[in-house]
Amino acid sequence: MVKAQIDVQFNWIFILIVGAIILSFFVGASLWYKGTQEQKITAQIVVNVESLLKTATESPKTAQTITIPDISLSFTCLQECNDYGCVSDFSGGGVTRSTETEVLFSHSTLSGTQLITWALEWNLPYKMANFLYITTDGIRYIIFYDDEHSTLAYAVNSLLAENSYLTKETIKVDDPSTISITNKNDAYVRIISFLDEGTIPLTQIEDALGTQQETWDIITVDGTENSGTITYADGDASYTGLPLLIGALFSPTNEFYLCNKQKALLQAKIITEVYATRTKGLYDSFIGTEKEYCTYYYDSSIQDAINNIPTALENNEDVSSYVNTLKQTNQYAVMKECPRLY
Amino acid sequence: MPTIVLKAQLKTGETIIVMIIFFILLAGGMVFYAKISSYTSKQQQEENQDVNAISIEQRIRHMSEIACTTDAVVIFDCYDLSKIHALEQVIPNHNLYYESIIFKNSKVTITSVYPTEDEILLFEPGDTNQSMSSQPFRTPVTLYDPVSDTTNFGYITVEVYS
Fold this sequence. Notes:
The structure holds two protein chains of two kinds.
Chain A: H1 2-57, E1 62-67, E2 73-81, E3 86-92, E4 95-98, E5 104-106, E6 109-110, E7 114-123, E8 127-135, E9 139-145, H2 150-160, E10 167-172, E11 188-194, H3 202-209, E12 216-223, E13 227-232, E14 235-240, H4 242-250, H5 254-286, H6 300-314, H7 320-335
Parallel strand pairs in A: 5-8, 9-10, 9-11, 11-12
Antiparallel strand pairs in A: 1-7, 2-3, 2-6, 3-4, 7-8, 12-13, 13-14
Chain B: H1 2-61, E1 67-70, E2 73-80, H2 81-90, H3 95-102, E3 106-114, E4 118-123, E5 137-145, E6 150-160
Parallel strand pairs in B: 2-5
Antiparallel strand pairs in B: 1-2, 3-4, 3-6, 5-6
């Protein structure tokens, strides 16, 4: 009787242990499956965003809004570059995608379900690259300008006006001490100053918007539509052409801007090499033909102008003389029924 | 007394048999799942190869290096033969960029069909002997020759190596 009781009890203990093992197996399997599926969904979202960004990049002069699931996207770009790109990526929900060659200007973190994308071509004078700008309607851009810097401010403002989705204000400043900003509870405020550096009273802005860098920051722009400098909290940088300046306005830091500028320069270098080789090829093609006069538009002086552009860009020199030479030559070539330079 | 012991032993035996059958079914399920997974991943791999080919073709379609342009304005689905020949010469100087970023282990051929027939091998990855080639992905394009001011019909072939 005692033996039988022990056997029955052992039977129950055995069933309990095995039941617990089976139960924990299924609980573990379902937890693992849930984790994998969550990761898969996040990865799919990031892949979809990447695909949307690629499409947006290839649609220059187009601004659009993209609705995405509510995840926070982070963008990084470090000035650690090789021959064709820089250490750069964007991530969301722990999934990261590389953007080592894509020239992409954005705030470092974007939250919300609406992304604003905008692309512009960087032509000097032939197409060097497409720039993609990403922001959200939660980021407000405030432009301050005075009479002295109005030409550049107007040019930037009219280009930004092509993107109707941006949250933007333009304020003409007669007396910097009277500047006032309303707090509209934006996720971030980027102040773009076309004034002499240091003229904006920071304390008044801090009173309205809170601590600098956390909820707002300020950059100062000085120059022309062709070239100039931008001053960030972490340093100065130069720009060539309005698309690059717009990129600076969308970049969170000097390093982020310089990293993307470096990517653009690397692309410019390769594109230029193709155009220089093509121009030399066109020169050789017309030698000894009835249209030999066309060689005038592809001779060594034109090839030099093409080759000088990336060098000048790298040295932050003015490229307008080379660009104008190529523009004029291109027009004359068309008039003489010779192939275009670009 | 011996009847009760035998009964208890029978019960334990039953449980063990049930357990054995359960684990056999579980193992069978796992084998089935593994087979299905391997089949699906093979299919997924083939699908990815096709998607890669389309993505590379899209990338080529927007390459500033070879597109026909009128004052920097790109003409859709048209490629400039003089730029293609120039790019052929430039690629060896930037092989890593074109191999790892642009063409991503794929062979790209541009073929002119009418009125003149010609074939340009724009890019071929370094070592393709031991690789499997996917089905070629072809897209019709126009090829403009600025020297003779003529336009040819042709197509671009992208073959992604696995």
